[in-house]
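re: ur question from yesterday

yeah so i grabbed the chain u mentioned. its 68 aa long if i counted rite. heres the sequnce exactly as i have it in my notes:
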Amino acid sequence: MKAKRLWWTVRLLFIRGGGKRAEYARKNNIYAGMGENVSIQDRRVPVYSELIKFHNNIAIARNVDFCT
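ran it thru and got these structure tokens back, copy pasting raw so excuse formatting
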């Protein structure tokens, strides 16, 4: 899982725009759930990301840490 998390983090570094990052995360099932109209500014994938769900109409700022 550690290698997969590192790959996702490296991949997110090259995606411009929070909406595009959220769409990439949705397609690759990085998080447990991803609602509509989600924007992710942070480019780091948290540890145990499969435990985190995002609902509709949210924006995640940079330097946000998730405790799982």
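noticed a couple things. The longest helix spans residues 2-13. also The mean pLDDT is 86.
anyway ttyl
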